[in-house]
From TrEMBL:
Annotated Flavoprotein domain residues: 18-141
GO molecular function: catalytic activity
Protein name: Archaeal flavoprotein
Pfam families: Flavoprotein
Length: 199
């Protein structure tokens, strides 16, 4: 068995390195996730095609997002923006929220969307990733665009979350509190702090 590869040292990132925050196609805790992204110092948003479709349903069309973030859209087959990981421009990859589809792809090494490609390349570059998985409880109450709905994840979803949690340089958040704690820890490692205002 090979030894774990150490995470990249902080001095290997650019001094102005940022968070690469990826949004997949889930509406689960999407508003709360964007609120956390707004409070972090230095965040660029990477949208999957599905994420770009879902965000306007929750009040976040791309023009509004661009008032707060640099927005990178999933419009190249080879995910060209992923190359910025190799030049040290991003110290952390966050996927929040992550659909069960995105979790499954990440857990099995499939990288055919902008978020999954960023996750795969972050792993190859030993860049820490935080994945906020949506399907982590027997019953999930989530806000659809017009109503609250009950979702009952299958065993395969739980298995994929556990598989992903075993990956190097990956923290899987199963709740919003887990996500906040993981971000707290990463900020401490980076010697950074939350913004006092999201406006």
């Amino acid at each position: 068995m090979t030894e774990p590869t150490p995470a990249r040292r902080l001095d290997e990132f650019k001094p102005d390195a940022r968070f690469a925050w990826c949004v997949s196609g889930s509406g689960h805790m999407i508003e709360e996730s964007i609120d956390l992204a707004l409070r972090l110092p230095g965040v660029d948003l990477f949208l999957s095609a599905a994420g770009e479709e879902v965000l306007p349903l929750y009040g976040w069309p791309v023009p509004k997002l661009r008032e707060h973030f640099k927005v990178i859209r999933d419009n190249s087959a080879s995910s060209v923006p992923v190359g910025m990981l190799y030049s040290g421009e991003y110290h952390t990859v966050v996927i929040a929220p992550a659909t069960s589809n995105t979790v499954a792809k990440c857990a099995f090494g499939i990288s055919d969307t902008l978020p999954t490609n960023l996750y795969a390349q972050a792993g190859k570059q030993c860049v820490p990733s935080i994945v906020f998985a949506c399907d982590t409880a027997p019953v999930v109450i989530t806000q659809a665009p017009k109503e609250w709905v009950e979702v009952r994840p299958r065993a395969i979803e739980f298995d994929n979350v556990e598989r992903l949690a075993r990956f190097e340089h990956t923290k899987v958040a199963r709740t919003l509190d887990d996500l906040k704690t993981a971000l707290d820890q990463r900020l401490e490692e980076l010697k950074l702090a939350w913004n006092t205002s999201s406006s």
